[in-house]
Amino acid sequence: MAGLDWDAVEMARRVQSGEVSALELVDASLERIAAVDSNIGAFLYVDDVGARQSARRLDSELTRDQKKSLPLAGVPVAIKDNLVTRQMPTTAASKMLQGFMSPYDATVVERLLAAGAIPVGKVNLDEFAMGSSTEHSAYQVTRNPWDISRVPGGSSGGSAAAVAAGMVPLALGSDTGGSIRTPASYCGVFGMKPTYGRVSRYGLIAFASSLDQVGPFSRTVRDAALLLHVISGRDPHDATSVDVSSTAPTVVVADPTQMRIGLPEEYFGDGIDPNVRTQVDAALETLKGLGATLVPISLPHTRYAIATYYLIANAEASSNLSRYDGVRYGFRETAPDLIQMYSRTRSQGFGDEVQRRILLGTHALSAGYYDAYYLKAQKVRTLIRRDFDQAFESVDLIVTPTVPDLPFKFGERALDPLQMYLTDIFTVTTNLAGLPGLSQPIGLADGLPVGLQWIAPALEEERILGMASALEAVLPVPSWPMQGGLSR
Amino acid sequence: MLLSKEEVLHVANLARLSVEPSELEEMAGTLSRVLEYIDLLNELDTESVSPTSQVVEQHTVWRSDVIQDSLSAELATQNGPQVVSAMFVVPKILDGGGQ
Amino acid sequence: MSDNYEVVIGLEVHVELKTASKLFCGCANLFGQDPNTHTCPVCLGMPGALPVLNRDAVALATRAALALSCTVHSFSKFDRKQYFYPDLPKAYQISQYDQPLATHGQVTIRTEAGPRAIGIERIHLEEDAGKLNHIGQRLGDATGSLVDLNRAGVPLIEIVSQPEMHSPEEARLYLTELRTVLSYLDISDLRMEEGSMRCDANVSLRPLSYTGSLADLPRVEIKNVNSFRNVQRGIEHEIIRQRELLEQGIRIVKETRGFDDAAGTTYSQRSKEAANDYRYFPEPDLPPLVLDAVWLEDQKNQMPSLPEELRHQLAAEGVLPRDVDVLVQDRALYGFWRQTVAIYPDVKLVTNWLLSDYSRHMNAKGLSFDNPGVSAPHLAELLALIEDGTLSGKMAKEVLESMFATGESPQVVVKRLGLSQITDHEAIRLIVSQIVEANPAVVADFLGGKEKALAFLVGQVMKATKGQAKPDLVNALLREVIASHV
Ligand SMILES: [Mg+2]
Ligand SMILES: [Zn+2]
Q1: Which residues, other chains included, contact A341 with Cβ-Cβ below 8 Å and sequence gap of 6+?
Q2: Could A418 and B61 be called an inter-chain contact, meaning their C-beta atoms sit closer than 8 Å?
Q3: What is the topology classification, in CATH, of domain A3-249?
């Protein structure tokens, strides 16, 4: 398994210098997937043939053209299965898209390929990214590599588990209300939701268009920075993407003594698992030790965030998921007439949670309810954004626990949707405000990972990465699960 | 219950989902509990607050009127559940429908 | 209407814009191609695809709004209008709802009672749907339908009038004037038969005793009628139908009705329970549209003269009032007229010929002024041949007919048919001499002071030349020859 304990930066450097071939790395990744994924269930599709072919092609290109420089040369990556790919099927973990072959690649996938990365497969998620546990996949359960009786978090559970279990050093996920940061926290890896607009959404199967962002999973800060850099930037195919050439997160340095870090009281109250609290407090002490100034702050509208989020996300989702109608692609149930074809197809193609959310979202937009629900939520969204604007007048960064608790056991929350929704309580606010957030693994409690969430003003990812890097340098190196000696 | 069974049926019809009569009660209950939670928002007076529908503060993002390659008809229809003469087939339309 | 009801009509007109590419993707905006050959992930509504606005579509829509005296808003936004139908790939249409591109315009119609302004409530941009081909004769008995998405995503403007028309005739006048104005902007093909211009008519009857708001009056929407004539017929029928119902005390239900061309009647298209709730909400994938003064100025500068201005201009140039309207109404006709007059500046003669013989031949051949069969330079040349005496008016008509038949220039036709009035002085002088020689008595009468005798001689010459000699010339030559004989 040569090379899998390196991070992506190290892998690419060695491939570039010829110390190791892309094929060797891809082979190692595929072997590890074959060895451990039957226990984890991260991958929905593994593209052995395609990945090896791409690796060979890259190796010969690099031999031919010594000057060719690719930031992710030969690095095996996993792609969340709600990002469309031409070479592999894309399902969004839904029966609705079983066997779907996209005629185009998502922009982030194009950028990965252009950077020399080798996609080895597509990874599991909650159906259409709707969930916080990856239990709501139409195809399989993904298990937490630290304890396979527990969920990996979601919805990007497959991405987090694949990185945590050392199958790949990097994975792409998407985050609408915490779908990158929650599984990153539960699986003990780095996961970043970028500023809304930093990364193109073209080819990301839409859940909630005004909240969705694609972002990286990694085991080191510098890997997160590198992958973010590769996928960032204005895309002519996404009118909401922004030009970030001046804020490219390439350099990872920060001076903790210059940093004022806000601790919002609403994120440190009751309802946090004491184990989580202990780890977070320890991390805060470490930050203080590094010279950072910790400042108590308030984000007073936090308690309205989940309600606001579920109205906006589900309203947009009800619209975005209307296109799955059995006409042009995907699943279709036969029926004698069009209306019955629509409703049978959609009722049988979508899982229960997806249907619940479509119903809720449709209700929130329907005649007579729009003002009370959707418009109201948009207004509260403004208040939540203002909270952050005000906070960032006095602090440079905000830290919070990523999730209030430790990874839960399968089925524990599946029965009560509301309980499940509350898992995202600390993560949805940044989606509503469009801000960047990173979950950083800070240690284990009862053998389970705990994550710290960093939040910065819009487009200040570099600030987060700098401080996360400073903290990473002084935290003990975690022992990666399910194998020996896999480290940085 | 904030959402009656009739309302669930109405919404399901708008969303082109079918809810079995046996599931109706439970669905109305589940959605009502979520809506009860959402009721929390009414604590806030938002009369004078403007809504946020997008967080990126850019506007007038457009492209020039240039033709780009289309897909071939094969590629466009390759995922179609039922395709005849490069067109998607749908079952008979009973009601006028449409716009 | 001379009875207890006032007819209230509002029109919604959809116009396809003539851009190179579609509204939100780069697929070609082309008509009548093989099915699904102009589609891409965006206009197919594929998972993950996103719209990006076409700048030129905004430009064309802005010019339409300016031409119709609308206020073009510096801020507008896009919204999703949601309903399921197989021709609508995303199950929502990207349109503009509460903040459209433009509002408060007008179209002036010229009724018998004089000009009247019909208000335009709004103009907004939206995407077109695809096309359904029904398997079977018509939708009602089709066993299924085939979906072609080439048209999906083609840019449209929707022009919504105020409910201010009160007769089918006013509706027709509104549509005619609207099309005339738009035609000068050259932003659309404006062909109703081909669907590049489509009209929905909202018709209601307001009892004179009714004092509530117009919006609350139950109205019937007649959808997608394929000609101006049929819009008028549909409204006519709808008025009769609604009046009959009202007189029987039956309530009018708000519904959508189609028009049956053969029967001349409307029929219910959508049942009540399928009533739509479009669940509009702001399109999160598209940032708002902000148009500044520079942009508006730029669009204004790219606009041609509009019908109202042209009408004044033509009147000043001496075109008769009744001809002015006819000339301006058809932009291609006007262009042709202008071209002809530029070469042959007799405004009256050009207008007469164009509106009578020329139009008759062109129509008979099923042609239009876009491609009329006989060019403006050829027409001008024909008119010049009348002036220089080569052709008589009657002969010119014959030449024109032949020009339409063969596409030849007037010179070629004249030569081929040997139709030219004989203008060769020597040839005529010879004939005149022969006639003078042969009629000494008549010549003597003439010389004796009987002016009428000359007319006889002229007649003889004309007969000998089979009418091809120009009478003035014959007259002059006769006097000359007789004088030299003396
Ligand atoms: Mg419309
Ligand atoms: Zn297209």
Answers
A1: A326, A332, A333, A334, A335, B90, B91
A2: no
A3: Amidase signature (AS) enzymes (3.90.1300)
